[in-house]
Amino acid sequence: MNITIAGIGFVGLSNAILLAQHNNVIAIDLDKEKVDLVNKKKSPIDDIEIKEYLANKKLNLISTTDKDKAYIHANYVLIATPTNYDSVANSFDLKSVESVIQDVLKRNQDAIIVVKSTVPVGFTIKMQQKYQSKNIIFSPEFLREGRALYDNLYPSRIIVGENSKKAHIFAKLLKEGAIKQDIPTLFMNNTEAEAIKLFANTYLAMRVAFFNELDTYAEIKGLDTKTLIEGIGLDPRIGLHYNNPSFGYGGYCLPKDTKQLLANFSDIPSKLIKAIVDSNSVRKDHIADTIIANNPKVVGIYRLVMKSVSDNFRASSIQGVINRISSLGTKVIIYEPIMNETTFLGLPVEKDLKKFKDICDIIVANRLEESLSDVSTKVYTRDVFGSDT
Questions:
Q1: Max Cα separation, the chain?
Q2: For 30-76, how does the pLDDT look when each residue is reduced to its tens digit (9 = 90+)?
Q3: In angstroms, rounded to a whole number, what is the distance separating the alpha carbons of residues 207 and 213?
């Protein structure tokens, strides 16, 4: 099978590697640097399994910027391009997804186009009607940044927005590349598949928001957060997972997906979805207010990344805290060793950890790390369990 993946990010590259174990795969991207790295069997993103598979596994995978080469002979084309949230339009920016659809149909009317990018409910049907093509289907991803290939090798479920021969073939292709056996697989309408992705991520955001508000309560009332969470989580209906307080839910998916679902609820009676979105802002306000209450001269931000296994700080929650603190005139310095830039959000980036520790009155860390143990009295964190799950 000839398969093309449009977009070399976490979703695109993890799918490319998964499928390249048993198929001929071409990964296409506008970024030539990413393309060159993949062709050299090097990962442009920080993901343990992606790095390992590129370096050591036999893969039928090449990368290109050439649209003709990528699309003309493809049986399946997976779209994994970004869909950032446009706060003015109150919707995802879907231009990159539709652009790929146009590029494919212009060159290959027979290719099955599988949209992996997260989209609003109703988008796929709209594209089918606009381009008069039944070869466009939606299949959501359920991946973690930093462990995207692992989550494709051991998927919780496979969902395809159609119950047809081409949909079953696609699900079989995913299963062939996976290590996990007996993967739950659901076939349904595209609109239902689109809704599942948004509701799933909003539920995760709700869980993060719940434990964050619990932690805010505990901090203000002088209660022990860990004791509360463990006592609650021993109820098997709740569980002792995905419960570590943070500075808010962040990353690329949860903030934008919750806002998109809220937009889809514009004509639906509801209170909860808006509360989940609002709760994230309230949490950042509380974190910033608590830090400022200590009257620090210099606030140090230890890492912009949300997770210890990720090199990505797109929409990380700490950025909202930074903006709130710096807007009040407090000096802020950022420590982020993976950045090449010397400033971020107009604030200085310090690469020398020792110097960073010496300069700061308070060090703000979303997650505690051993490298901060010698300045523990300076550290402000709400991390309880030292993990992201």
A1: 64
A2: 999 999 999 999 999 989 999 999 999 999 999 999 999 999 999 99
A3: 10
CA dihedral 337→82→156→43, nearest 10 degrees, is -40
Q: Is residue 211 part of a domain?
A: no
Query: What's the rounded Cα separation, in Å, for the pair 246 and 366?
Result: 6
Q: What is the pLDDT of residue 256?
A: 86
Query: Are the beta carbons of 250 and 317 closer than 8 angstroms?
Result: yes
Rounded-to-integer distance, Cα 358 and Cα 378, Å = 10
Q: Residue 70 belongs to a domain with what CATH number?
A: 3.40.50.720
166 shares its domain with 257? no
Instruction: Determine, yes or no, domain membership for 281.
Output: yes
> Is 0.90 topped by the overall pTM?
yes
Active site residues: 253
Cross-strand bridge partners of residue 63: 27
Domain that holds residue 160: 2-188
- Distance separating alpha carbons of residues 380 and 389, to the nearest angstrom: 20
Q: What letter would DSSP give residue 191? A: H
More confident residue, 387 or 7: 7
Alpha carbon distance 240, 223 (integer Å): 19
Residue appearing with tokens 């210890």: 308
Distance CA 384, CA 153 (A): 30
Domain end call among 160, 188, 216: 188
